[in-house]
Amino acid sequence: MTKPPLPPRLALGKLATLRKMAEDVLGFLHWLHENHGDIVRFKLPGRRRLAVFSRELAHEVLVEKTDVLRILHPRTACDVVPSAGLVRMPAGEEHGRLRELIVSAATPERVAFQKHVAAAEANRLVDELPDGTVDLPRTMERLAWNGVTTSLLGRGPELDPAIVRPSLKAVKLTFMLSVLPGFQLLRRLPLPHDLKARRAIRPLDEATREAIGAARASAEARPELICHLVQATEREESGWRFANDREIRDEVYTMLFAALDGPVQILTLAQFYLRDRPEVRERMEAEVDQVVGDRPLQGDDLGRLPFTHAVAMEVLRLHPPAPLLVARRAEEDCTLGGYLVPKGTSVDVVLHVMQRDPESWGDGGAFRPERWFEGPGCPVDRFVPFSFGPKECRGADLATNLIVATLAAVAGRRRLEPVERDLPTEPGLGVGGFRGAIPATVTLR
Ligand code: HEM
After folding, report:
1. Residues flanking ligand 1, CB < 6 Å
2. Dihedral of the CA atoms 334, 340, 342, 348 (nearest 10)?
3. What is the pTM of this model?
4. What residue ranges define each of the domains in the chain, with the CATH number in brackets?
5. What is the mean pLDDT of each run of 10 residues along the chain (445 residues)?
6. Ligand 1: distance of its center to the CA of 6 in Å?
7. Angle between the N-to-C axes of helices 202-217 and 192-200, in degrees from 0 to 180, rounded to the nearest 10
8. How remote is the CA of residue 280 from the centroid of ligand 1, in Å?
């Protein structure tokens, strides 16, 4: 039998490709798509890679071929989180059992609790906004931290989010550098940064230990997720077992790490678009005035704000916080789109290109929340910021609630106007994946 052909190849040496990628990774990926189509192979030192840009190919990778294309998480810094856990496990039977435990946490009571927390924290953010200037990522980090730790642990707002910054930075650095040859070996050394991360996070260790104890002592199902993790496994209502409390803590920590940057990034960037499209901002403010009026925002309001929701979706479309998914590696020869993918190839699914592709979206690079009301003009199946398939995000609702609640609470009472003219597009290791502070002026509406 004849072998299928290899996919189109980028005719550039390994080092030249690495240089081009390092200069502007998203620019490089868009350029690859424009010049070579929906599937392209290229080489980096030490690794063969393949990038896919269409929904159909993404479906093959994320749903149909998960047994052979396995997620390739670099060993993270941190050994602050040593257990494999949901995020790092490849899709399969073991992952399925842990995923089932997390999915079964979404009872109507817990869903309502998360909406309530999102609204309460968004109101608190607006109450505490000073007159003058704020740093957008730091302001949104506090909101995301409070919302996520309360939903996961039932406490946390009393702690400073600075305690997880070194761990998050270590995780981001690991991902950024993981394309370099020899990197896996280097990451086994305990670098000073890792030790700092481990020390800094101790107050959260204490809070988590207490939350596990409280869940064990409670006869009732409390709304925080950790309570479900403890009770459902210890009462044998789940096919999953944690070996010890450390593994429960690790599961919560990985979620926490997965949860913080996305909302911070979206809420920060949204303020630039709203400043530059005043008619969009006014339409959103009018919607909030009509639904919420003068009272504080409530959890139930979140489902009654379609335009505010569209603003959130439009920023998530233009700036998916995971612009390319964690690489999958071919464990053996397989095919994608009829092309041969040799064993050992790393496969990148590029959401950033898919969600802007002019063939699907027309004016895909434009910020136009109105498109979400245009039916077939808005190809929602190409909008997958939370991925899809067995490894799709388990925090999409929580993240969406936090984002919509914050947009609405701010729109009801304040305006946040970034001082800089241009969007911060250079990725960094700071809060929200930015390089540093992003000042914005706060004005009363
Ligand atoms: C705007 C915010 C967020 C975005 C855009 C986002 C996006 C994603 C994406 C794209 C993945 C799949 C990664 C891959 O397979 O390569 C993922 C996985 C995951 N996310 Fe999120 N996420 C967000 C917020 C959250 C929050 C708030 C939580 C939890 C509280 C969370 C928990 C997870 C978990 C547990 C996984 C792993 C699922 C699995 O492997 O089965 N995420 N997320």
Report:
1. 86-87, 99, 148, 255, 258-259, 262-263, 266, 321-322, 325-326, 385-387, 391, 393-395, 398-399
2. -80
3. 0.96
4. 14-444 (1.10.630.10)
5. 89 88 92 96 89 98 97 68 87 96 96 98 97 96 97 94 91 75 68 83 95 94 95 94 95 94 98 98 98 97 98 98 95 97 96 96 96 91 97 97 98 97 89 94 94
6. 32
7. 40
8. 28
